[in-house]
Amino acid sequence: MHELSVVENIINIITNKSKKDGFNIVKHICLEIGELSCISIEALEFCFEITCKNTILEDAKIDIISVPGRGLCNSCGQKVAYKALYEPCPLCNNYDITKLEGFDMRIKNIKVQ
Amino acid sequence: MCTTCGCGSDDIKIENTITAHNHDMKTIDIEQSILAKNQGYADSLRKYFIENNIVCLNIVSSPGSGKTTLLANTIREINSKIPCAVIEGDQQTSNDANRIRAAGAQAIQINTGKGCHLDAHMVQHAVEKLNLDNIKLLFIENVGNLVCPAAFDLGEVHKVVLLSVTEGDDKPLKYPDMFDAADIMIINKIDLLPYVDFNIDNCIQYARRINPNIKVIKLSATSKQGFEQWQEVLSKNIYRMKLQA
């Protein structure tokens, strides 16, 4: 996936929020990016700096919390670490795992002045 | 006026005291998915399709797997009994929409330019331009790309991933996001199996590692081998949609 359109989405969400809440300067933004989501954190940080010029996020420092993958194994019933979609349950080697965490991309909060 | 943060007015008097005011930042919780906007459009499309009894399928694959041929030949088989329409997605040209029209169904072409996937907003605009009054089946042929379309819900009832036997049987392991997002996998060009090094059982096994519940259909879009199973899936979905009404 492409991080550029993800950053554009972030800018739209925060710009709309600024119109509702009446702030003009965002100093800090905190994102939660799942390890199994479809973007690369390094690429996202790179795109962020370039794409946010002349936007409400121009001066914002970005913090990214990386959320590790976790799943529920439908065979042994245990909650397990989920490192990749093609990997089986580390306990019982079964592939039938329900996703729990680590797949989303979220804006957690912002700090404004 | 405070030259630090711009607050205050010219009436503030300071008498032998330093007026300190709060330059602290205010935290605003957002707690929102970054793709919430696309999801909003997709949810609205899904609701529209259900209200109008339209089964919508999002067809995804690498370029050249046979999506357009599959749709054109499906339309030739069923369109007289089950009216179909197609939204086509490519970077450039209307070639695929023209092929669909030649097969006898309404088609609209979205050209994404530099874009590599369709999103729900584009599909919303395309739906507005189609006449869907009597349409039972709406196919969205996504841009040929096994990566990006996985993340974009278009309001479909099924995401159908096409994989042809000329591509390599380990595709599901190499592109897991798409095989995870899809719930139907069509293995196409099975008429070419005698000429290629493709182990169909391995391919299905790999796909089921990523997505244990994925439904598998094996067919040839050109020779129509295996078409009955595909038509059965389409009919079942139309019947289910009718029951929901």
Textual characterization of the structure:
Helices cover 27% and strands 32% of the residues of chain A. In chain A, helix 1 packs across helix 2. With 113 residues, chain A is an alpha+beta fold. Chain B is α/β, with parallel strands linked by helices and 245 residues long. Helix content of chain B is 35%, strand content 20%. Chain B contains 8 helices and 8 strands; from the N terminus they run E-H-E-H-E-H-E-H-E-E-H-H-E-H-E-H. In chain B, strands 4-3-5-2-6-7-8 form a 7-stranded parallel β-sheet, sandwiched between helices. In chain B, helix 3 (95-103) links the parallel strand 3 (84-90) and strand 4 (106-111). In chain B, helix 1 runs parallel beside helix 4 (120-129) and helix 2 (67-78) runs parallel beside helix 3 (95-103). Chain B is globular, with a radius of gyration of 25 Å. Chain B starts with 25 loop residues before the first strand and ends with a helix. In chain B, 42% of the residues are buried. The chains are: A alpha+beta (113), B alpha/beta (245). The interface between A and B is medium-sized, with 31 and 30 residues.
Gist of the model:
The complex is a heterodimer of chains A (113) and B (245). Chain A is elongated. Chain A is built from 2 helices and 6 strands.
